[in-house]
Amino acid sequence: MFVDITMIKSSSFRLVLGVASCLAFTPAVSADQLEKAQAIEGKTTQEAAQSQSRINRRADASLAMRQEIEQIQTQISNLEIYRDHLQNLVSNQQVEAQSLRDQIIEIKETRQGIVPLMYRMLDGLEQWIAKDMPLKAEQRQARLEKLQAMMGRADVADSEKFRRILEAYQIERDYGTKLDAYQDTIALDGRAHQVDVLHLGRVSLVARSLDGKQHWVWSTRDMQWVSLDASAGEAVDKAFAVAQKQVAPSLLSLPLSANQGVKS
């Protein structure tokens, strides 16, 4: 059997040439793939960096939003506390407003009752002065007339009117507890006489002539002045000296106005 060596050689040559061609092409393919891999890796790294940047931004935004939410919650809590405070104030003001309305009604009712009371008090004061011993009669009558005129004045508040009337009653009460001396004009035998007058409360009301020679005592029974004996003059003079603070206070002996009467 004969084999064509030429054909074998030719085939072997083509085989070797093919293998050589493959060996020659292999490095080129590997370099391209490496570049592609590096490109992919670079792109992946870039995308990862971009993703991380987006994550960081979102995390910062989320943290800022959380802080803002906490601030808003704090503001809401403060507003709720302030709202409750205002509600308490409003409730208290409503109670006070109602109280003021009730007081206004009471004041109106009180005023309607106080005005007639003041007129009755003045009437009582007038009757008291008329029936009382003539103790500073002119001053008391002038005070009464001033109060009566005051009642018709619109520029004086009712509270001030009531205060002045009470003050007049206080003065009248004090007359009954003091030892006092003053000058006055009294009626004797139908004529006016300037005299020194002394009163010990409302127990004793005596008068002395300016020359000190005559003495009188007021009689509450007869509503007039009654002459005193000369023997009573020394005690009366001593009482004047005590009232005028010329001597130290001491035991006084004065005629009582209630026990005096005109001798028949």
Unreliable residue stretches: 1-13, 15-26
Q: What share of the residues lie within helices?
A: 55-70%
- Strands, count: 5
User: What's the alpha carbon Rg, rounded to whole Å?
Assistant: 62 Å
Supply database-style keywords:
5-stranded antiparallel sheet; 264 residues; rod-shaped; single chain; signal; disordered N terminus; 4 helices; alpha+beta; DUF3450 domain-containing protein; 64% helix
Give a quick rundown of the structure.
This protein has 264 residues and is α+β, with helices and mostly antiparallel strands.
Helices and strands, with pairings:
Elements: H1 5-131, H2 137-150, H3 158-175, E1 179-188, E2 191-200, E3 204-209, E4 215-219, E5 224-227, H4 233-243
Antiparallel strand pairs: 1-2, 2-3, 3-4, 4-5
Explained architecture:
The structure is a single chain. Helix 1 (5-131) crosses helix 2 (137-150), helix 1 packs across helix 3 (158-175) and helix 2 (137-150) runs antiparallel to helix 3. Among the domains are: 108-175; 178-264, no CATH class. It is rod-shaped, with a radius of gyration of 62 Å. The chain starts with a helix and ends in a 21-residue tail after the last helix. The chain is an alpha+beta fold and 264 residues long. The chain has a 5-stranded antiparallel β-sheet with strand order 1-2-3-4-5, covered by helices on one side. The protein has helices at residues 5-131, 137-150, 158-175, 233-243; strands at residues 179-188, 191-200, 204-209, 215-219, 224-227. 9% of the residues are buried. The model is unreliable at 1-13 and 15-26 (pLDDT under 50). It is built from 4 helices and 5 strands, in the order H-H-H-E-E-E-E-E-H. It holds the Pfam family DUF3450. Residues 69-110 form a coiled coil. InterPro entries: UCP028069.
